[in-house]
Each structure stands twice: as C-alpha cells, then as structure tokens.
Amino acid sequence: MIRPRNFQPNTETAQDNGFQTLAVDASAHDLSKRAYDEVTGMVEALRGEGIEVNLFEDPRDDRPDAVFPNNWFSTHPGGHVAVYPMYSQNRRIERRQDVLEMLKARYRVQDIIDYSGLEQDDLFLEGTGAMVLDHVERVAYAARSKRTSEVLLERFCTHFNYEPMVFDAHDADGVPIYHTNVLMCIGTDVALIGLDTILDTARREVVRDRLAHGGREVIALTQKQVADFAGNAIELQGRDGRVLAMSSRAMAALAPEQRWRIEAHLKILPLDIPTLEMAGGSVRCTIAGIHLSPRPRVVGAAA
What we know:
It comes from Aliiroseovarius pelagivivens. It holds the Pfam family DDAH_eukar. InterPro entries: Amdntrnsf_FN0238. The protein is an alpha/beta fold. About 25% of the residues lie in helices and about 20% in strands. It is built from nine helices and 14 strands. The chain has helices at about 30-50, 95-105, 125-130, 150-160, 200-210, 225, 250-255, 255-265, 275; strands spanning about 1-5, 55-60, 75, 80-85, 110-115, 130-135, 140-145, 165, 185, 190-195, 215-220, 235-240, 240-245, 265-270. The longest helix is centred in the N-terminal third of the chain and has 21 residues, at about 30-50. The chain is globular.
C-alpha cells in the first residue's frame, strides 16, 4: 500500500473515469491530510486482523493516483511479478524501483515481466484494475476500455496461464466502465459482480456461469451498488480466516440478504475512506496483493 502526502483526484484520468468526484468542500492541503489519515486507518485495521501490510510513503506532489499501486504491478505464485503500461501519462511515474527491490528482498522473486515499454505502442493493461483474476479457475476477466488492450491481455494470459474472458460493461448512463475491478471482485467461495453492467444478455450469462463454475456463489450487484464501490473489494487472509475488505460506503450499499450471503463464507471488514473514493477507486484499488513466498527471516538480522 502507498500512503500519499499530496493526494488529489486526477484531472487527467477524469476523462474516462466516471467514478471520480470533485472536491468542493476542502483545500488541497485538507484533502491530502484526510487521504493520509484514511490510509493510516486502513493499515491499522488490516494489521488488526493479522494481515501483513508493506506500507510505502509517497512524498511527491506529481503523482495524484499513487495511492492505487495495483494498477502498475501484480505478483503471482511461483515468484513472478508483472509491471504494466499505464494509459494516463501522469500515472506512469507511479512505478517505483524501491517497491520492486523490497519484493525481491522479502519474497522469492524469480522474474519480473515488464510490459511498460508497450506504452510507446499505445498498448495498455492497468494491472488488477483492468483485470480481475480468478486464481482458482485461472480466468482473467476484463471489461473493454481504453485502459485494457486485448492484445496485451492475451499476452499476459499466455505468460501467466490464464484464460481471457473479455466483455463490454457500462454504467447507468451508458458510459464504458474504465476498470473491471470496480464492477466485480472474486473470492475463494463468493464473487460480487454488477451483472447489469453487461448489456449483452448472452455474454452476461457466460460470465455468470464461468464465475459459478466449481461451486462459487455469485452475488449480483445493482448499478447503484457498483457506483457505491460494492464491487471494489478484495479477499485477504487474516489471522483468524479470510476477510473481505471493502469501504464503509460499499458495505452500507449492500442489502441485508447480500451481507448474510457473504458472511456465510468470510468476515466483512469495512474501511472508512470517503476522501480516497473521490479519486474514482476504493479499497481494492489501494491494495496490491502479495502472492509470493516469503524469504526466511534470519534470526538476529536487522529489521
């Protein structure tokens, strides 16, 4: 996770991110402080559940979306790391060598596959924002957008052994949804998805059936719930079992029956991040998951 000191909604990405909102009640300084405090609170809550968090600071003032690291890299079992090409030019400077060096130092990293040079060819694939990965069934779900190149998606799936599942998704106003992870999340036993965002009914059923394959419970979200970030959640391993981390706003948007169905499988952990959500992303976007094997800690070594 990245804790920002100069947070603000990104005017460059607002062109195709319909989930962003303007800050009309706070100065830039107040926004930054609120965002900083919200990430601090998230980290404390996650660690309170026994979830290990690697927290980095971002003191620069030219990376408004630095708080969303899942777009520029992902990690995978077997020691693999991917680095991604970003659509917006001012997001490309979010890639950080110190983060990659930390991964190599603390975890067993075999290779880093760097796709970022393909920005020069106008090919973009914004990590686990553009793709929602089913680690059990090995499917990469992706909604078509400016930020998701089907050519690059196919290349990723070949490298990492996933089946691509591409579809068109639109918000309530008919605008293409910019990132797949705002409309769906996939856990071990349960998946949340805004099925109504997929207008093609035949394709919608294909996606639903593929998600349900293997017995996973599929919970359909409304357009309103997607707009409230109910799909932008992530399953994490806690001390006492699996946890579904989502924002307080997202949890409040769920119907009681939906909450009950989720909690039959895992605990919901609500996190209060209204300022961060102004940037058009929520809890899932702030977390780049670690799927690497940790290196043994040397007894007596410096922390």
